[in-house]
Amino acid sequence: MPALILGLLLLAGPGLQAHPVHQSQAQAEFNLETRKLEVSLTVFINDLEQVLTNHSGQKLSFEKTEAALFDAQVQMYLAETFVLKDGTGNVATMEWLGRELEPGSEKSAEPEVTLFFELSLPHGIPGSTLRHTLFCEVFEDQSNLLRFTTGTKKIVWCFLKGDGEKPLPAP
Q1: CA-based, 20 to 30 A from 27: which of 7, 73, 148, 168?
Q2: Could you tell me the CA-to-CA distances from 42 to 15, 22, 119 in Å, in that order?
């Protein structure tokens, strides 16, 4: 019997190996009063550190790097990979609101952080597009999930490597 169990474990072995997941999850809601897209974007800290280190050319650590420097690098990276354009093709201005360690994830092997920011669309949504390529230059299997809400409309998108801009639906 032990030989049978060992044999089954050996056959199942490749399926039991841990496979890293490269995924971000975002909530984005267009505030009709302020005309801003309010975004919360949750990512794995180790993925963020790796990408920021590659992007900046210096070793960056969520825990050890000065918060202002780390946040500045995050903002520069987001400006290149989370790009909202208005109906005339102008890139929306980003306002950084901060970051928060996901409760309960700090003790896991894969802690997560949520990044909070807003993007201004003074002329509203019509004709606006979003390109969300976060981490796609590093991870071939990266998927970026986005739950978008405006008025009564709710859409869930998955942005993958090679995806271009996607039009935002009008409220």
Answers
A1: 73
A2: 27, 12, 17
> Could you read off the pLDDT of 13-36 as tens digits, one per residue?
443 333 377 899 999 999 999 999
Q: How many other CB atoms are there within 10 angstroms of residue 59's CB atom?
A: 10
Over residues 128-137, the pLDDT tens digits come to: 999 999 999 9
Could you tell me how far CA 9 lies from the centroid of its own chain? 36
Tokens representing residue 43 in the block: 């990512």
Contact criterion met (CB below 8 Å) for 113 and 102? yes
pTM, whole model, 2 decimals? 0.85
Nearest to 149 by CA among 23, 41, 43, 26: 26
